[in-house]
Amino acid sequence: MRVGINAHLLSGEAGYRRAGIHQYIAQTLRHLPQEGMEYTIFTRYTANWLGAVGAVVGSRWPTERRLARIAWEQLVWPWLAMRRKIDLLHSTAFVVPWLSARPAVVTVYDLSFMQSPEAFPRLQQRYLAGQTRHACRRARRIITISESGRQDVHRFFGAPLERIDVVYPGVDAVYRPLPPEDTAVFRRQKGLPERFVLHVGTLQPRKNIPLLIEAFAQAAPPDVGLILVGGKGWLFDDILGRAQALGVQDRVRFTGYVPDSELPLWYNAASLLAFPSLYEGFGMPVVEAMACGTPVIASNVSSIPEAAGEAALLFNPQDVAELGDRLTAVLQDPHLADTMRAKGLEQAKQFSWERAGRETAVVYRKAIAEN
């Protein structure tokens, strides 16, 4: 079976593009089983490790730019697939080309552009909605990264549930409890407070950061900081303005994007991870923090309870007081924090990239078999 995989959303440069979707694509590719499959990976980013997965077809098109990527997906990819006699196309992010009649699989990570269309530029929202609707009708199989996402695709686009497969993300082995001395050195190097609340994710409206800042201002003791790790998204100025209005700007730190290699150290150094998002396709920081032994408090909506299981304290992401109570509970009760660490380590073990690769290959076989 020859499978052609559109991996143009892989990023070769450090930056916010290496979060989320990049990690899911990269890790799934690394763990695809080789038996009975031949993979052709179409990408702008030609890393050495891709050659171990399959044939790599690089592109001179500057597909890191949105319009160039759209043109490549719709015009170039179908032609390349035909030339290389590809049996099955896998679009790893939302879009199936209109001009190809080949069987296809599409991965849909989340439908935030349907849940909160007002949070997106108008043209971007319309493009994503239209292309995803077409992809979900056209593809033989649809992959989502949570059961919540599976139900969303069914609800918004009418795709039959039996055509939608859930392939959960995994947790990389780098996310683990680190020696205390390593964490202490990192804390000194970064000038971190002894105790701080951590948030990881691109700073954008659906991450609900203003509510976190308000709860932090009300509930966190003066010696506790709030550190927001992630690239600046749209409406970042509203987040900064909220910290200033509440008088906690000196206790809130924006790191910007941090390298992948540093993230385990941030998780290990934190007193807890707060994840107040209004909507997620899965919520990778939840399980990454748990794998590092960090207590997690998270919102109780969309897919987040699937990631958190019974190991996190959940809260209504519209309720500042409830989030404040959760912060107070973990920061002031060492026994509770220790219990959450132990539960979190067990919860994180349920998510494996090896299984994600294997289950993705099963989806390929289903798609080929369904004539």
How would you sum up this structure, described in words?
The chain has 371 residues and is α/β, with parallel strands linked by helices. The protein folds into 2 domains: 2-170 and 352-369, Glycogen Phosphorylase B (Rossmann fold), CATH 3.40.50; 180-348, Rossmann fold (3-Layer(aba) Sandwich). It has helices at residues 21-30, 66-83, 112-115, 122-138, 147-157, 180-190, 209-219, 236-245, 263-269, 284-291, 304-308, 320-332, 334-348, 353-369; strands spanning 2-6, 38-43, 55-58, 88-91, 104-108, 141-144, 164-166, 195-200, 224-229, 252-256, 272-275, 296-299, 313-315. The strands form 2 sheets. Strands 3-2-1-4-5-6-7 form a 7-stranded parallel beta sheet, sandwiched between helices. A 6-stranded parallel beta sheet has the order 10-9-8-11-12-13, with helices on both faces. Helix 1 packs across helix 14 (353-369), helix 7 runs parallel beside helix 8 (236-245) and helix 10 (284-291) packs across helix 13. It starts with a strand and ends with a helix.
Strand runs, count? 13
Principal-axes shape call? globular
H and E order: EHEEHEEHHEHEHEHEHEHEHEHEHHH
Mean pLDDT across residues: 92
What do we call the CATH homologous superfamily of the largest domain? Answer: Glycogen Phosphorylase B
CATH class of the largest domain: Alpha Beta
